[in-house]
Amino acid sequence: MSVGWKRTDSGGYECFLEYEKSNNMGCVEYAATFGSIILLILTLPFSLFWCFKVVQEYERAVIFRLGRLRTGGARGPGIFFILPCVDSYCKVDLRTVSFDVPPQEALTKDSVTVTVDAVVYYRIQDPLNAVTKVTNYSNSTRLLAMTTLRNILGTRNLAEVLSDREAISHAMQTSLDVATDPWGVKVERVEIKDVSLPQQLQRAMAAEAEASREARAKVIAAEGEMKASRALKEAADVISEAPGALQLRYLQTLNNISAEKNSTIIFPLPIDMISYFVNYNNGSQVI
């Protein structure tokens, strides 16, 4: 028995009296244990086949005697001894177990319906709590994982769900680890496998992306035209300063045409004749 004081939520103090739970067996339990020992002795050596049990390196055995959890913690790995008729035991696997979270359809923070599935890895770190604190730790962890995934998706925007999967996985792992710790379960890793969007939303996003790409392409083409026009203007300024440069450019163009297309017939026309007609149309006379 222990007596003490503790602070309440309202700010006051209260006195408490606690009685320690007794693990002593009663008369009936002593009689049943004594009878089991007598039965063990009478049936030797055949009873030894049911009294000695073996658990593997990755297993632990939780032993109950007449419904009470035996002291000393979980047994294993190796061999251990139980009394017939009064002792029962439960094996717990300590290896990492993985399971798929079924696709969960949830509504994101910006009111978009998404379907997300994940995979969870967990292991048993406390065999006693896994057996005594929860009926089925595996099924309970699976149901909790589905609920946690839907809750976390409801706090995220669509852009965060699509681009920041690691943060969602970490938040889900932390939440699961805290919730399953009293059960003796350790959640080691959570991974988001796939995010599915409705078909209408996929088409809308594809149209938006296509329009954005077309807009960027037009801007790039306009910038290219502007740079080309500036280059042509500079080239025209250079040619206008040197009259012979235009004639050389004309001869170079003829050379390129004759090299690429041999079937093309070219009739050279002197530049002076063209300039004569141009000056004549402008009202000037060339001597």
How does this model look, in words?
The protein has 287 residues and is of the alpha+beta class. The chain contains 9 helices and 10 strands. The strands form 4 sheets. The protein has a 3-stranded antiparallel beta sheet. A hairpin with a 5-residue loop joins strand 1 (2-7) and strand 2. The model has no long low-confidence stretch (mean pLDDT 80).
**Rg, nearest Å:** 43 Å
**Morphology:** rod-shaped
Largest sheet: 3 strands, antiparallel
Please give the count of helices.
9
Strand arrangement across the biggest beta sheet: 5-4-7
Structural class: alpha+beta
* Element-level helix/strand string: EEHHEEEEEEEHHHHEHHH
Kindly state the number of beta strands. 10
- What is the end-to-end distance? 133 Å
The helix fraction, in percent, is 40-55%
Low-pLDDT stretches are: none
Q: β content, as a range? A: 15-25%
User: What value does the average pLDDT take?
Assistant: 80
Summarize the structure.
The protein is α+β, with helices and mostly antiparallel strands and 287 residues long.
Keywords:
287 residues, three-stranded antiparallel β-sheet, 25% strand
How are the SSEs ordered, and which strands pair?
Elements: E1 2-7, E2 13-18, H1 27-42, H2 48-51, E3 52-55, E4 59-65, E5 68-69, E6 78-81, E7 87-93, E8 97-107, E9 113-124, H3 127-132, H4 137-153, H5 158-163, H6 165-180, E10 185-196, H7 199-241, H8 243-260, H9 271-281
Antiparallel strand pairs: 1-2, 3-6, 4-5, 4-7, 8-9, 9-10
